[in-house]
Amino acid sequence: MKFTGAQIREQGQSFALVLITSQAASTQHTRQEAMQAFSRYFPGVPLILACQGSGGRFTYYGRQDIANFLANLDPRRIPWKEYTFS
After folding, report:
1. CA distances (Å), origin 81, targets 8, 18, 35, 56, 64
2. Rounded distance, CA 54 to CA 65, Å?
3. Superkingdom of this entry's organism (predicted)?
4. pLDDT band at 55 (very low <50, low <70, confident <90, very high)
C-alpha cells in the first residue's frame, strides 16, 4: 500500500496526517473506514485525514483541536512524504 502522509510533532503534540481522496472524504462512513485503515500505520497517535479540494484548499478530519490547528497552517509547511507498506 502506498499513500501520502506526515508525522508531525508540534507544540508537544504528536499526530499523523494522511491525504485521502475527495471520494474517501465524501461521507462520515467513508472517513471512518479511512481512519480505521490508516490508524494501524500510526499506532498511539491521533490520526487526521486531509483532503485537497479542486481549488487547492485542504479540509481536515479528525480530532478537532488538531484539525483547527492544521486549517490555520500553510499546507506547504507540512512535511509530506510517500509511505509504502506491504
Report:
1. 12, 10, 18, 18, 23
2. 25
3. Bacteria
4. confident
- Interval 66-86 mean pLDDT: 93
3-state helix, strand, coil in the chain (%, to 5): 25, 35, 35
**For the chain, percent of residues with pLDDT exceeding 90:** 90
Confidence of residue 17 (pLDDT cuts 50, 70, 90): very high
* Residue 33, all three cell numbers: 473506514
Whether residue 86 is predicted with pLDDT greater than 80 in this model: the reply is: no
Set of cell numbers at residue 64: 478537532
Contacts of residue 62, defined as CB under 8 A and 6 or more positions apart, other chains included, come to 35, 46, 47, 48, 49
Domain that holds residue 48: 2-84
Indicate the number of domains in the chain. 1
Inter-residue contact 78 to 8 (CB < 8 Å): yes
Is 53 in a helix, a strand, or coil?
Answer: coil
